[in-house]
Structure to design on (234 residues):
């Protein structure tokens, strides 16, 4: 069974500063994928970034980067130069890598508030 | 944007009544999922489907059933709604490949259906 842990229920950050949202995971699989999703107050789920377990480099997408530390089983999201529009819930998730019956397992989320 | 529509978007019902939520996709993705979102729990998987008439249970499947008679439609049914099933329900679709391959298996979500059981 897979488990995702997000230990920060809420975070505050000043506009234009960087912020790290923590995510640790537990799995016995050798191959897996890690995701981050954003949920603004409007409720939709927005895919941000993906990291495969065999990827040697950390994934980046614009201001988002994923700090992947495989030995520590952590997949922290780093948002650089925070903007007011970054205020939202953020969810970490993972999926088994092997083909077959697979589904994403989500963490409980972190609410980020960006202050002007 | 992925073509996913959920209906109804909002529903208030009474304990003991049956409720069906519909998810319709126009992307021809094989995989479809139903999640529920509750404060402090994130998104929890209820049921999922890998194709027509091929479904499986998730971690919180008790009290729910699903059906998929067509690729594009995935129905979630609460046979006898209870107050503990008050939640926001999300449908999602994907066409997953192997992790690390060109298709990451990301989920595309519908807009959610808010269900209140009184």
């Amino acid at each position: 069974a897979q488990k995702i842990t997000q230990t920060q229920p809420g975070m505050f950050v000043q506009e234009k500063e960087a912020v790290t949202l923590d995510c640790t995971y537990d799995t016995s699989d050798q191959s897996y994928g890690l995701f981050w999703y954003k949920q603004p107050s409007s409720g939709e789920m927005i895919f941000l970034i993906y990291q495969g377990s065999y990827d040697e480099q950390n994934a980046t997408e614009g201001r988002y980067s994923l700090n992947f530390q495989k030995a520590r089983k952590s997949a922290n999201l780093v948002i650089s130069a925070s903007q007011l529009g970054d205020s939202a819930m953020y969810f970490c998730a993972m999926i088994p890598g092997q083909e077959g019956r697979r589904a994403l397992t989500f963490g409980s989320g972190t609410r980020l508030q960006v202050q002007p | 944007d992925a073509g996913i529509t959920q209906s109804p978007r909002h529903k208030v019902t009474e304990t003991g009544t049956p409720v069906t939520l519909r998810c319709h996709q126009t992307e021809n993705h094989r995989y479809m999922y139903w999640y529920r979102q509750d404060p402090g729990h994130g998104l929890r998987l209820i049921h999922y489907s890998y194709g027509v008439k091929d479904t499986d249970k998730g971690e919180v499947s008790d009290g729910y059933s699903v059906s998929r008679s067509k690729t594009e439609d995935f129905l979630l049914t609460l046979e006898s709604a209870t107050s503990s099933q008050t939640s926001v329900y999300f449908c999602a679709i994907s066409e997953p490949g192997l992790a690390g391959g060109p298709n990451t298996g990301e989920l595309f979500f519908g807009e959610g259906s808010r269900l209140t059981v009184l």
Q: What stands out?
A: Chain A has no helices and twelve strands. Chain A touches chain B through 32 residues (CB under 8 Å). The first strand of chain A starts at residue 3 and ends at 5.
